Amino acid sequence: MLRLTKWTFGVALTVGLGLAVQLGAQAPGRAGRGRGAAGAAPARPARRGNYEQNMRPLAAPEVIAHGKELYDANCASCHAADMLGSDKGGNLVASQNLLNDQNGELIEPIVAGSQASFGMPAQTLSKDDVDTIAAYMHSVAAQVGSQGRPPGPQETPGLKVIVGDAVAGKADFDTNCSSCHSAEAGGQRSVAGIGAKYEDGRSLQNAWVSGTTGFSFGGRGGGGGTGNPVTVTMANGDTLSGKLVTENEFVVVLTTPDDVRHSFDRDANLTVKVTDPDAAHKDLVLKLSQEPNGDTVMHNVTAYLATLK
Q1: pTM for the full model?
Q2: Residue 226: predicted pLDDT
């Protein structure tokens, strides 16, 4: 079994310092199934990237495919199928020996036992097989992403954030939400189409949990938030209602439906009542947070709302 030692192959890329290993000239091709084998297709260029290994020519596809077979059979049990290492063997993608190697010449002595004292015993592999494995290893190293990211897709795959049960979510919606919201178009405070409005599951759940789905009566923020309905009762009993602009310990400012701005100095004889249109959402979240299955209910409702396109 090919077990390349952690001490030999565990030298990490110094990405933050922009380390680029300068490789020497390509060694002559070798006979057999190794790199540059007779009859093999011409070497193809590697993907271009930040490091020298991204730009070096690689072996023919069939050589790399055979090298993968040999690697999987002889090396993966210690160094992992992705070459990133395990508790039995080091990270080969970040190996300084691999970065400096051209055609297996630095790998062959290690496989032959030069690093036995570091826990890498000699392996019974032919020179051609070692060179073919090295060709495969170079093909993997050539896929290291920009800024030293591991081999693989360069874009982070989207996370599955809709994890609830939509069917159960409808029942939860009917129980907890239907007294204020309708799932039908044109109904009271309708949430029809909310799944299309918030296609990202995280945004959808944040919106309905906070009550800022766009279907609530007041402005965003609640509990004194700007734009919420407010009624000011003065010392003589007169009242004035409108939308809150500012409220603090010194002043209350509101606008009435005719867009007239009114300002009141705060004193003991002034009563201010701000209506939080999202209070029901906040109360529901508090209630669910105290129930053992509260998180499940939230996720289920989100899954159901996501179906309302």
Answers
A1: 0.41
A2: 65
